[in-house]
């Protein structure tokens, strides 16, 4: 997507945000409101609704317990038994040096399947309101990356994975990019504040790219004074959800990083992989898991070109040949003189398919 925007001449800013303490800081009030609304509209399964109803009833019984907060302010180090109306899951130890109990007003239950589901429902609803507010603001970037799907406009500029958030801002005029990024960042912070969440600026990054006449001046202003850029700190590349993103949006940078990772893995296990006393089947299995597994991780979802497959394939063939030592480059046993092993014969010997077949069958 980013590479396509740059090819069409858009000025882009890709913001990679991370939410600080997402599962621990979500507002309890927002979670309860979402559960009540979902239960009325029958948006959740009966089993999950019964489970959450039981938890809510126990929570309400605890909140209105006649003991009040006096019995809660007890030293935690004494490990005194909690009364029947006081639920352990509704309490959490305060700082270790204070040794006091306190009320839980935020966060989702952890250790069961309900926690992530509650967080995603509350988090997604607030992000949807944030995207609708961007449309009402009339920002140019909100209409640039919209596709029509069954008669509805779908905004494809925003992607969320757990608590990580990625958004591409694409505009036609250079002067509009900084203004729109600043406005988007302000609206996002205000939306997250409603559910008591904040952005982690230390882990965030912004990939800014200008095109056309005047790009040098705007680029120097952006990367020369990163503290003046609204939002996250501008960087030329950043790692997000296990993948490395470059400011130009091309996948070549990520492919080279993956190839480097595969080479390092091969170097670490080279003594084992090239030892002739170990059976070929065992060495081939270790190679597929350690070297190919680390090199091809998550590349099945990237738009690779033929040149990328060829780069990976050449490296794989060199490694497979070196595992056979001198036999990898010599004449086949009983074969025609002067005819060395072909690439297909090497792959057949180690039972390793091509990179293209490996990725499309994942």
List the helices and strands and how they pair.
Blueprint: H1 2-7, E1 11-20, H2 22-25, H3 28-40, H4 46-63, E2 91-93, E3 101-103, H5 114-137, H6 140-144, E4 146-149, E5 152-155, E6 158-161, E7 164-171, H7 174-193, E8 198-199, E9 205-209, H8 215-224, E10 237-240, E11 243-246, H9 252-268, H10 270-273, H11 280-295, H12 306-323, H13 343-350, H14 355-360
Helix pairs in contact: 3-5, 5-7, 9-11, 9-12
Instruction: Report how far the terminal alpha carbons are from each other.
Output: 22 Å
Uncertain segments are 62-102
Please bin the fraction of helical residues: 40-55%
Tally of individual helices: 14
Provide the structure class.
alpha+beta
In N-to-C order, the SSE pattern is HEHHHEEHHEEEEHEEHEEHHHHHH
The residue-averaged pLDDT reads 76
| Number of distinct beta strands | 11
Shape: globular
SS strand fraction: 5-15%
Structure notes:
With about 350 residues, the protein is α+β, with helices and mostly antiparallel strands. The chain has 14 helices and eleven strands. Strands 1, 6, 7, 8 and 9 form a five-stranded antiparallel beta sheet that branches. Strands 2-3 form a two-stranded antiparallel ribbon. It has a two-stranded antiparallel ribbon with strand order 4-5. A hairpin with a 7-residue loop joins strand 2 and strand 3. Helix 9 packs antiparallel against helix 11. It starts with a helix and ends with a helix. About 10% of the residues have low confidence.
